[in-house]
Write the structure tokens for this entry.
Amino acid sequence: MSDNFDAAATAPAFPGGTVLGYPRIGRNRELKKALESFWKGNTAQSDLEATAKQLRSVTRERMAELGLTKDDSSIPSNFSFYDHVLDASVTFGAIPARFSRLRAEDGSVDLAGYSTIARGEGADAPLEMTKWFDSNYHYLVPEIGPETVFALSSTRWVDEFVEAKEAGFLTRPVITGPLTYLYLAKPTDDAPTGFAPIERLDDLLPIYVELLAAFKAAGAEWVQIDEPVLVADIDASREDVLAGAEKVYAALASSTDRPQILVAAPMGSLEDALPVLASSGVEAVALDLVKGAVPTDVDLAGLTVVAGVVDGHNIWRTDPDKALAKLAAVAELGGAVTVGTATSLFHVPHTLKGEEHLGEELLSWLSFADEKIGEVVTFATALREGEDAVADALAEARAALADRAAHPGTNRADVRAALAAVTPADRDRSSYVAREAAQHDRFDLPELATTTIGSFPQTAEIRKARAAWAKGEIDDAAYEDAMKAEIDSVIGLQEDLGLDVLVHGEAERNDMVQYFAELLDGFSVTKNGWVQSYGSRCTRPSILWGDVSRPAPMTVRWAQYAQSLSTKPVKGMLTGPVTILAWSFVRDDQPLGVTADQVGLALRDEVTDLEAAGIGIIQVDEPALRELLPLRKRDQAAYLEWSVGSFRLSTAGAKDDTQIHTHLCYSEFSEIIDAIDGLDADVTSIEAARSRMEVLPAIRTHGYERQIGPGVWDIHSPRVPSTQEMTELLSLAKESIPGRQLWVNPDCGLKTRGYKETVASLEHLIEATKAVR
């Protein structure tokens, strides 16, 4: 322990329990709406600030109402306007040179500039975006070079703490740790070959010391530093990571002017990093005991241990007996035990209130953010006062778990029998050489064939029609007419533009997973279960609670109608089994591979029906394949085996002349190229524009033999890339990929874009293709 603080093992911090973070978008997506209004110029920065302030106030009050103590730092302060990693970049002054014009004289950046860095402007591309460890959250990748000047350039984190204090709340600020920040960063474009951002650790550490002093001066008693990189295997050697942890936390703990430090390492087990932290001098460590195991053979005496027994990453009610057993096991390690969540709760929706349509039975199995705080408070009370003090709450939880286990929908004999009948041959197609010849004869596509990923912009009119149909305000015929009219328009637009392979635009789909969840048995969907994906973008994950089957075809009539409008091939569009799992809240009572294969069998039937309807190109999207990859390398082979196997189960029944496409986002291709090759798709499209074709060396080295479309248009930004920009990217791609294998496409679907920017960007894509052809 540090000499600056005295802490007895019998007196834990946050004795009433705590959480590592809370949803920040707003129960009714208030922040999303305020941000998008600000970006459109409809409101001023002061209006956005006012909405955010009100949202922070409501959040604090809600956590206190649910039982967290307001005056002992139990309530975290983890607000962000867009992304917590971007917040760190702005706080430390690490702004790319192309955005230097956005700085004020004091080095700060206002919300307009902050938004520009996140979203891009004109010729200036935004920061690259990728997934936050094994979650569906996207962070903005810092750009750090030898020339980056670190300085404490923003007081927003401190100001928000002061705001809470003035409202009567002593909160615990949450910041991204220096190791995670630098290891997740990428070198600036002009950094010398071989430079790694972690080389700047000695320069960044003093800024953290300065920030901690600012928190201390403002009255903060605790600060939470998130270091999930400590539970992951990354490119750097483990020895270097551990040495960095020893350096960082010894330095921060030895500072004489700081709050107490809680180091949180969610998403897995700290393992060999735990002794390093325990001996560093920090006052508390948070352990993820949902994805990670209870540690053994480590002395935690003198530390507060926030035991994360409540899952912050999924929505199932906590098993009280397992949680209490883990708490008892942690207590044996000598530390002062506090009950907490395994991760921040921003990965789950706000509350079950308003979801009564799910039915009392399913609701009793679930726990969203507010309910998880209730669980934390219940277990904390049991820890302090004994189980008798919360006997009714524990009995209720046990009864709900027993009911869930006995429900007939969680163990269907017909689904289990179908899965048991699967043989290895059901996962294999004929050789790619034979398939390529058959597909060439059928389609005769040009070199550098052009297509889009699937969705087209979802206009207000589409959403209104879909909502009116769901409410019964229009009948089936009127809804069908509205969707067909949009398909007519989308097909006509693509033909006018000159695309080679068309899509129907997915007007009928509210979401690429929820659409299927509403048509498959074993799923339920929420009305307001929104979770932040990135910035103002929110997703509403479905709940996969039981055995999965397909009662009827799901996409055939829309694909068949679209194909009837054109002589060019129109892709059938399906979402793959891994992505359906990754972007849903999935049952935790059986192996993920079993659930994925159940979904795979349902999709296999859909592929067969699409073929029978005359659809010759079928895309089975797996943008989340990399997302679920375990953070420890020792666990990755088993994951890739079942994830690739479930995809192949979905697609291997296709005929040779049926061209199977897949799509992957943010996949860090080099890490899983063998698995992507193993998918055995005929054509794979991948995100590549925002990273400026960083995937190419992996493709070239691997000798990838099938067809591939690295994206030339970053659709996550509203900017319209020029023809020249796309031409340059496509030319780079052609240097590594033979033209007969190379496709031209955007990075991802166009659902979130407007038609004006979509048409302009696709025109540039076609012009770039012609230039490179």
Residues 476-497 form the longest helix (22 residues). The first strand starts at residue 76 and ends at 77. The CA atoms of residues 34 and 714 lie 24 Å apart. Residues 1-9 have pLDDT under 50 and may be disordered.
